[in-house]
């Protein structure tokens, strides 16, 4: 009988030493800046990047759009071990009447690991200029 040790492989990784296919729950918390026209009604997406690979793209659905000065919590299931989380891509599809988004920050919370958090500050526009619909954010 093989026993697995309960060692934390990485901040957002697995908890068992051989658990490459383990699904785990996380929260992506998106905070919109509190400046004029910061909100957006475009479709917004996130991809999480770690030392062992990237997640699939998550659609962060908000029926009424993202409002200035608000924070939104999206629960996602990550289907593979990403290793140590280092970055996140936030993008939008440039649709709607107000597609540009002023992103204050993104926080990832590993619900499976009891709330371990990774912060990604931004404080920049996504989509204000026609060629910039994606932002790559690095953890602090």
Give the topology, please.
Blueprint: E1 24-32, E2 44-50, E3 53-54, E4 58-60, E5 71-78, E6 85-92, E7 101-110, E8 116-126, E9 134-138
Antiparallel strand pairs: 1-5, 1-7, 2-3, 2-4, 2-6, 6-9, 7-8
Structure description:
It is a single chain. By secondary structure, the chain is an all-beta fold. 0% of the residues lie in helices and 45% in strands. The chain has no helices and 9 strands. It has strands at residues 24-32, 44-50, 53-54, 58-60, 71-78, 85-92, 101-110, 116-126, 134-138. Strands 2, 3, 4, 6 and 9 form a 5-stranded antiparallel β-sheet that branches. A hairpin with a 5-residue loop joins strand 7 and strand 8. The protein starts with 23 loop residues before the first strand and ends with a strand. The relative contact order is 0.26.
Major sheet, described briefly? 5 strands, antiparallel
Structural class estimated from helices and strands: mainly beta
Content of β-strand:
over 45%
| Apparent shape | globular
Average pLDDT metric: 83
What is the CA-atom radius of gyration, in angstroms?
A: 16 Å
How many individual helices?
A: 0
The ordered H/E elements are EEEEEEEEE
The portion of residues assigned to helices is under 10%
